[in-house]
Automatic annotation (TrEMBL):
This is 2Fe-2S ferredoxin-like protein. Residues 7-90 form the 2Fe-2S ferredoxin-type domain. NCBIfam families: PRK10713.1 (NF007985). The keyword Transport applies. It comes from Pseudoalteromonas xiamenensis. Keywords: 2Fe-2S, Electron transport, Iron, Iron-sulfur, Metal-binding, Transport, Ubiquinone. GO terms for molecular function: 2 iron, 2 sulfur cluster binding; metal ion binding. Its cofactor is [2Fe-2S] cluster. Pfam families: Fer2. CDD domains: fer2. Gene3D superfamilies: 3.10.20.30. Belongs to the 2Fe2S plant-type ferredoxin family.
Length: 90
C-alpha cells in the first residue's frame, strides 16, 4: 500500500512550513492550528474574506465557493491542498 504524502503549506511571510493534516477540514483550520492570524468570516465560501494568493501548488474545494475567486487566488475556508502549496495572506 502506498502512503499518501502530507501536503506542505508554505506562507511567504512565515518562517516555518506547515503540514496539512489529513483530518483537517480546510486550509483555514490548518492555519489556525498553527496560530496564524488568517482572515475569515463565513467559513462556507460565501463571502471571500479568507481569500489568499496561491503562488504555487493545487487545492481542491470541499464545495464550490459562491464567492468570486480570481485566477491565482483561493479561499482557505473551503479548500484543502492536494499538493505542496505556497500562499500569501492579503
Amino acid at each position: 500500500m502506498v502512503e499518501k504524502s502530507i501536503p506542505v503549506v508554505t506562507l511567504t511571510n512565515h518562517n516555518e512550513p506547515l503540514q496539512h493534516a489529513a483530518h483537517s477540514p480546510s486550509l483555514l483550520v490548518t492555519l489556525e492550528s498553527a496560530k496564524i492570524d488568517a482572515p475569515y468570516q463565513c467559513r462556507e465560501g460565501f463571502c471571500g474574506a479568507c481569500r489568499v494568493k496561491l503562488i504555487k501548488g493545487q487545492v481542491i474545494y470541499n464545495e464550490e465557493p459562491l464567492a468570486f475567486v480570481r485566477e491565482g487566488e483561493v479561499l482557505t475556508c473551503c479548500s484543502q491542498p492536494i499538493t505542496d502549496i505556497e500562499i500569501e495572506l492579503f
